[in-house]
Specification:
Elements: H1 7-15, E1 19-24, E2 29-32, H2 34-40, H3 44-48, H4 56-74, E3 82-87, E4 93-105, E5 109-119, H5 121-150, E6 154-159, E7 162-166, H6 168-173, H7 187-190, H8 196-209, E8 214-220, E9 226-238, E10 241-250, H9 252-297, H10 303-327, E11 337-339, H11 340-357, E12 360-364, E13 372-374, H12 377-393, E14 399-407, E15 411-417, H13 425-429, H14 445-456, E16 460-466, E17 470-478
Parallel strand pairs: 12-14
Antiparallel strand pairs: 1-2, 1-5, 3-4, 4-5, 6-7, 6-10, 8-9, 9-10, 11-13, 14-15, 15-17, 16-17
Helix pairs in contact: 9-10, 10-14, 11-12, 12-14
Length: about 475
């Protein structure tokens, strides 16, 4: 037992899980505990009297301890802990954390040093791995930012709606001179107030299900100019936190060009419609004007003249009525499930007399079972009446019109087949255009209305025809 030790001191020294050594003032190892022997890879005898004192790594460690302790003792300071890379006899390297305190003899003063060694190899390795990972992340983030810097698309990185990064393309977009003009401001400032509701809905959608997707916003530039942008948002980790990357482009000119094209198309369509209306109405008006002049010059009235005038006036009325129907919104006002079979039966009954007058027979080929679709009864009746009237008007020599109803789980098909004059492919392509018709007295508006109604019911219409052999119209509607 050392002169300045006690039984309790010796017991704590020996049983400690931390490697400990008693070292004399000149650096000689006086005593070590088992934990230090296990840590350094030597026996107590080897550490106190054997060769390890001559080993460079261990000798350097002792010299470091003594130097630090001596300097601190001379300056009346505590000994500063330090870390040391120790070469284990097995060849592996350990990182030891050494703490030293001066052991005092109550009567004679300083007698030596108590040195504690803690193995921090695993902690050091973990820290090194973390440093390497952080370095790699920093390198990736730097490369990512370099990519964004050269990207021609505009990029904003935001955290909780606040701008933390803006690339040069985005600076030019918002007419900013320097990133500091934009960094730190809210996206609510950039997005125009008229789109704040859309912005809030998008944030709420992300909070609910984590979806962001694409967007279209009107933005307000720093100089007050407004621009329309489109883009999408991704969620990434930026500077250690979750952030949103918005990638977008300016579509202001594109939208303006689309509006110009659409307006031009509207004007063109309006011009064609106006020309068609003028042409269709001018012919009966010319006839009416001529017969009115004849009546004025005639010595007595001619009943035939009045019949012709009345017929031409009715023709004008028909054109105007069809134009009025076409001008009304054709949205579907759903009246509930509709039985197609029941509608077809009503229409056949309605059209039978007119068909008989033209020596035409209407033959249904479908089974007598209910077939349901969703839609508006009167609009669908108008569709089937228009198709039957067209079929009858194409059959000047009489014949047969067959009606079929086919259905499955997905759709219902209504097929109207006539034995009329038929149409060429060019005529089929032009069907549905205003004032384009194969009939002598038609306007083309009826079929245009028919196609609109079918479209608004979520359906389509196909036409097959062979000149002089008849035409087949097939309507496809979603089944219930």
């Amino acid at each position: 037992m050392l002169p300045y030790s006690s039984p309790n001191h010796d017991f704590a020294f020996e049983q400690s899980v931390i490697g400990m050594a008693m070292v004399s003032l000149d650096g000689t190892i006086l005593k070590v505990n088992s934990a230090l022997c296990d840590l350094l890879g030597y026996t107590q005898q080897e550490l106190t009297v054997g060769a390890p004192q001559e080993e460079n790594s261990f000798r350097e460690l002792l010299n470091r301890v003594v130097q630090n302790a001596s300097a601190a003792h001379g300056l009346q300071q505590s000994v500063t802990p330090f870390e040391y890379a120790y070469r284990h006899p097995s060849g592996r390297e350990l990182y030891l954390h050494a703490r030293c305190s001066v052991e005092q003899d109550p009567e004679q003063g300083p007698k030596g040093y108590l040195v504690q060694f803690e193995d921090r190899t695993l902690l050091r390795q973990l820290m090194k791995q973390l440093e390497q990972k952080e370095q790699k992340l920093n390198e990736k983030e730097h490369s990512f930012l370099q990519l964004l810097e050269g990207l021609p698309l505009s990029v904003l990185i935001t955290k909780k709606g606040i701008v933390h990064y803006i690339n040069p393309a985005a600076l030019r977009l918002v007419n900013a001179a320097h990133p500091r003009d934009v960094l730190g401001i809210s996206t609510d400032v950039i997005v125009d107030a008229s789109y704040h509701n859309a912005l809030m809905k998008r944030r709420a959608k992300y909070a609910e299900n984590g979806e962001l997707g694409s967007f279209n916003y009107l933005i307000r530039c720093l100089d007050g100019q407004k621009k329309m942008v489109t883009g999408f948002t991704l969620i990434i980790n930026y500077e250690g936190e979750k952030a949103a990357v918005g990638i977008f482009k300016d579509i202001t000119e594109q939208r303006a060009e689309e509006d110009r094209v659409m307006q031009s198309e509207k004007l063109t369509t309006a011009g064609q419609l106006a020309a068609g209306i003028a042409h269709e109405i001018r012919n009966p008006l010319t006839s009416i004007n001529g017969f009115v002049k004849l009546l004025r010059s005639a010595e007595r009235s001619n009943e035939l003249y009045f019949e012709i005038i009345e017929s031409e006036l009715k023709r004008i009325e028909l054109i105007v009525n069809e134009l009025l129907v076409l001008s009304k919104p054709q949205g579907v006002h759903v009246s509930g499930p509709i039985d197609v079979y029941a509608i077809m039966e009503q229409i056949i009954t309605l059209m039978k007399v007119q068909a008989a007058l033209k020596n035409i027979e209407i033959i249904p080929h479908y089974p007598r079972v209910p077939v349901f679709v969703q839609g508006e009864v009167n609009q669908l009746k108008q569709v089937f009446i228009n198709l039957l009237k067209n079929a009858m008007e194409a059959m000047n020599q009489g014949g047969t019109i067959t009606l079929d109803i086919l259905h499955n789980a997905q759709e219902v098909q209504i097929i109207v087949q006539d034995e009329g004059v038929g149409m060429t492919q060019e005529q089929i392509q032009s069907l549905g255009q205003p004032f384009v018709t194969t009939k002598d007295t038609g306007t083309g508006l009826g079929l245009m209305i028919t196609k609109n109604i079918i479209h608004n019911h979520g359906g389509t219409m196909n036409v097959e025809s062979i000149p002089d052999h008849g035409t087949t119209f097939t309507i496809h509607l979603p089944a219930l």
